[in-house]
Amino acid sequence: MDILPHWEQGTPGVLCVAGPHAIPVSTAVRGSDSRLVFALGGGRETLARLREDPRAAFCLLGAGSAFTAYGRAAVVRDELNGAPHVAAVALEVERVQDHLAGSRTEVLDGARWRWTAEETRADERRIVAELRELAAQ
Q: Which of 29, 67, 88, 101 is the most exposed place for a label (fewest CB within 10 A)?
């Protein structure tokens, strides 16, 4: 599979960068068959690592899908309008590994999570809205 699949918004995944270094991501937005965009806190070590070495992998396990997207990531906006403490990153996908291809198993659900403060829920809505705009570019 070389086409990025679709998934339910809010399904968390794991971004892996040089190190190895992994970080959970809950804001991934599918931009196209070969691009996804997500947000990371501006002070994250992950951003510094991506600036030094853009190779990255994003793994998502959600209802009906399990894949890893491999490619190169770059910061496309250092500060989001709705959340200046957050940077937007785009992963230009070079290869997708479908972990369910030919499998006798299926993923019934992804990890369940929620924000514990209302203000962070509102921040996420603004962040995802801006990421959708960036993903469409």
A: 101
